[in-house]
Amino acid sequence: MGMFILRRSGQAVLVVMGATLLVFIATFALGDPFASTGDRQVPPEIAAANRAQFGLDQPLPIQYVTYLGNLFTGDLGVDFDQRRPVIDMLAETVPNTVRLALVAILIDVIIGVVAGIIAAVKRYSFADVLVTVLSTLAIGVPVFVIGIVLVANLSGVGPFPTVPRSFTVEVPWYQEVLLPAFALAIIDAAFIARLMRGSMLEVLRSDYIRTARAKGLSERKVIGKHALRNSLIPVVTYIGVSLGVLLGGAIITETIFQYNGVGFLLFRAISGNNAPVISAVVVFGVLAYVLLSLLVDILYAFLDPRIRLN
User: Fold this and answer.
1) Which residues does residue 85 pair with via DSSP β-bridges, in sequence order?
2) How far apart are CA 298 and CA 296, in angstroms?
3) pTM flag (> 0.85)
4) What is the Cα–Cα distance from 202 to 125, expressed in whole angstroms?
5) Fold of the CATH domain 97-273
6) pLDDT tens sequence across 155-213
């Protein structure tokens, strides 16, 4: 198990290094990201300070080394619009995105896993057909359509806050996160239900399940103790990848609901061609995705020891 973790960790480091190199080339090496363009006028002293900070007056390899050094020390540059350190902006938005991602994943797991188990255990029943039809319909609906429908019908209704709302209106985080979390969870829950159903049906046909039933174990024990663990393997993989994507910022959903998270920050940065913020958010998204993928691999190996040998 130790060698497996070490090998996967080494692969994760290589992926992060490659991703930071691509981000550096796309953001800084191809042109001057700190030059004044169009309506955006960057004061000369700010532009010069940013160029010096990122070493853009040095040869390209030195520029990249300087960029990596800034990343490791948390020096991500200064925002063009508010003249604030980018690290402070991330510190404000990342906790909001983490809450949104965790609530969305919790809804995914509760709805998707339960629906998938019911559909598999009661195969070809009305419940199975209902889960299959609803999950197929949900998968086919784009997330921005779901978001717009939720805003149009539930904004300001009951516990859901008004969208958009004035910045002077304070809303508890558990209310603010509900609508965007449901928008994100609907499609993922449908995927999880389909995955869980297919995986559970495959496991239920296994020899060890037939042996467990032949020993006289109750159907509840067969499902809960023997079938559920192996059935969860593909679901755990999908949940980990989905969580990594959400932590990187659900840009469409957060923008629709004007939710102050990493995705909405990235949208504003792209709209204003704000290079330091774009670079920081993209690198954060890559790190979140890679770390969650590493944790999923480790959990996958724990659930299925055969994985460790690959």
Assistant:
1) 78
2) 5
3) no
4) 17
5) MetI-like fold (1.10.3720)
6) 878 788 888 776 667 778 888 898 999 999 998 899 999 999 998 888 888 887 877 77
